[in-house]
Amino acid sequence: MRIVQTLTTAKGGSSMEEQGRGGIGNPIFHRSETWFTPLSPEDLKAQFLEAFSDRRYAVKTTGDEIQVATGSKALYKIWGNLISWGQNNAPVGLTLSVRPSLEGGSEVTAAVFDRFGWRLTDKTFFGAEENFTSRMDGLMQTARTASEL
What we know:
Elements: E1 2-9, H1 16-19, E2 30-37, H2 41-51, E3 58-62, E4 65-70, H3 73-79, H4 84-87, E5 92-100, E6 106-114, H5 128-146
Antiparallel strand pairs: 1-2, 2-6, 3-4, 4-5, 5-6
């Protein structure tokens, strides 16, 4: 597997140019990567679906895209980031786009982001960045591992 591009934005800015999406309610934490794998697009999609078949993931497929969601906005907002019930339910999403590669195999573009949703401010609180980054890293690692032979 060869990673081609990694774009990391731990905390997106509040302006549209800085955040890429703009506005309160859009992800504060997001990252995207692109890599190539020798697996065919069909085999790769099957690998992704198997890797995320655990009941803690909500998986939706549309065309060449697979969307994965984990955590709970409601539980995270109720319990917050300071206790384990909130931390373990930090809402995180992953979008995987799979295309055939000109070199053979597949090109994967993975975007991972928080799904916190609407909030009063773009400010983060104690431990939120570390918690969301850790949860996002876990999803991205699962995707990378699934795309290996």
